[in-house]
Amino acid sequence: MLIGYVNMDGRVLLSNLSQSQQKREWYHRNKEAVLEQQKSSEKKKKSQKEWYQRNKKLCIDRARKWSKNNPTARKLIVQRYTLKKTSIGDWINGSNG
Fold this sequence. Notes:
Elements: E1 4-6, E2 12-14, H1 19-29, H2 31-39, H3 42-54, H4 56-69, H5 71-93
Antiparallel strand pairs: 1-2
């Protein structure tokens, strides 16, 4: 038997659900609003900038190591980037279309 109560939105919250599961369900219901709030958060931007400044060498070393271990993937990424860059340039110059 499930025991619960109705909140202000008219949703039934079950008391035998764990708090983390209720939070997870709330997050999935409000995912877009939460992500938008995080995206525009100045505090998050500041903390990320500080983290990257402190760990710049680690990030660069990790990227170099990945590039060395995955040359075909790296080549594919570079090809996509250059193709995208040239196709955008063509549209801007008016030579496409």
